[in-house]
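Supplementary Methods, section 5.1.

A reviewer requested that the exact input to the structure prediction be made available. We therefore reproduce it here, unchanged from the version used in the analyses.
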Amino acid sequence: MNKAVCLLSGGLDSATCLAVARKEGYECFALSFDYGQRHKIELEAAARVAAALGAKRHVITKISLDAFGGSALTADIAVPKQRTLEDMGQGIPVTYVPARNTIFLSFALAWAEVLESSDIFVGVNALDYSGYPDCRPEFIEAYQRMANLATKAGVEGRTNLKIHAPLIQLSKSQIVKLGSELGVPFGLTHSCYDPQPGGRACGQCDACLLRRKGFEEAGIEDR
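The structure derived from this sequence is encoded token-by-token as follows.
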């Protein structure tokens, strides 16, 4: 069984991505990050999802992106609420965390090399998303080219790393339908950027609104 490193935030998309990797026959090593995010409760969701979907191992790595700030997720900046879909489709929102996916993929690349794995799965999405530059296909393609130049395993020809982004061209409703087909335990996931004390979703941030839209359009109940 081939090994794969799967980035797992605990949200809907990353959980579905993990389920895709499992369906494709990979032995999955889930990787999550405590990066100083205000919605740290997502890490509890990630642990639940990793266990439910049979990850071989789940690692939570601590990196302090809040030391730099610059985002509503890592600094004392208000999370936008009740934005329209038109608003979400314009510009890069303040919830963008500078270089986050670049950093996350670097950690995944390091672990993949240790595992002698040629496969990394990431649940980025370029359709129903909030304008993040590091969710685009051209970013994933460029990173994959770089990764194969950057590692000992790549230079020696022992691995030819592939970054799998199976959700990148799917709408949120298509992701919900796919996750449902694969048995993703949606009730264990967490998407909210600004949860209330105790972890309840705010229901008004971009992530909550896009999640709601996806389930409604898919005709599936969000548990």
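The chain has a mean pLDDT of 94. These observations are discussed further in the main text.
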